[in-house]
Structures are given as structure tokens and as C-alpha cells.
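Complex record, two chains
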Amino acid sequence: MSLFSSPLRLLDRLSKPTIVYAHCDVPCGIYDPKPAQIAAETVVKMVEKIQALPKDNPPSEATRNSFVRMVWTKEEHARICKHEILILWTDFFKPEHLAKHPQLHDMFWQAAKLCSKNKQEINMEAAKELQKAVDEIAKVFLEVKAAAKK
Amino acid sequence: MFRFIVEGDSMTPTYQRGDRLLIDPLFWRIIGLHINDIIVLRDPRDSRLILKRIKDILPTGKFFVDGDNEAHSTDSRHFGPILKKQIVGRVWRKY
């Protein structure tokens, strides 16, 4: 910490700085885990469809076209899933939620990692793990929402 | 100088959530504001303090403000250009 900021940080301890909002508040209050759940479900579906493709060798043009489309869709929905859960993590959940849900950070971190894994691999186990992780996030989200209404 | 702490992500990558800023509440009134200055202003809808960048100064004297993270910002694109009297100060520096 610099000579400039040290005294100011000390001052902050005595008197808190004012909050200035740098918010995206058009979607604020419309947080929903559903898009992430749909994206995770799509990843599972794509892995299922890729694995069910005909195993003809060499693959026909139609099979190759389907394969590319399915991989692209899996990639895109894993990306959407990560984007959606990161919004929940960074914008919806607040430090006070950690008290009741201490696993929160790890839960999101693992889910985000699973999004990446599902981009890298055609792996049904990883796809199902992602779906489960996102469902778990949705469960905590609903609990927090319900507690806020009380 | 006023001390502020940033909440939210609409000014990333310039300023992140938790960044602490010193705001000049007076000097800008003498030397004026310029395009690209980052300011603290009162949200015209609910008067809370928000952080935005001046993107344009209109011939009417109003200011068009925008977040650096445009995909995640509520700004003049939504609430229109703002008046000078809504401006609280200009960001001097982070600390």
C-alpha cells in the first residue's frame, strides 16, 4: 500500500466511504437460475446426441455436419451456462449469504470449472455433474430468495 | 475530497467492485468537465449515487453518460442525458 493510500485506508476504517453504484440495474431483480439450468440441460442433451451419432467409418457428410452442429451447440451452451452462473455469483449473491451458505464460493467455482470441462470434452459424466451443480445453485438461490421475502 | 467505494460492475475494467475512489467535488466546477471524465452523479430516477463516464457533452449542456462495461450498465442509453446539477463530482484518483 502506498504512502498516499495508507492514511486514506486508515480513515476508511474510522469512517466508511460512501457507496457509489456502478450497476447494471435494468436486469437487477430479474435474477433467475433458469437460463443456466436450461444451458446445462442442453449440454447433457448434446453429449447424448453426439454419442448416439452413427459410427460409420468414414462418417457421412450428414453425420459430420450433425457432429459439428452438436459440438458447436454444446460449446455455446457451456459458455452461456458459465456466463449465467457468474452473473448470479457476482451480482445476486452478497457477502451476507455466505454466513448461511459457506459453500457458496466453492459451489460456483466448481460449476464454472465444469462449464470449461464440458467445452473441452464429450463426457456424459461431466455433463451430468454440471447439471447437478447448476441445480444445486438454483436450490440455494431459491432459498435465499425465500428468506428475503420473510 | 469525498471518499467512495465502488459497488457493481458497470465500470469494469476501469474500476472494479470494491475499488476506493477520491472524488473532487469542487474543482471541476471551475475547470469544467470533459468527454471521458468519470463522474459521480445522482441517478435521475432515484437519486442514488452512481459512477459513469461522460461520453458526450450535448449542445444543450446536458451530459451523455455511459458505463465502461456497456453490456452491464444502466446509463444515459436508458435514462437519457443528465443535467449538470445532478453531478456530484469527478473521479480524481483511486486509492
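Note: Chain A has one domain: 30-149.
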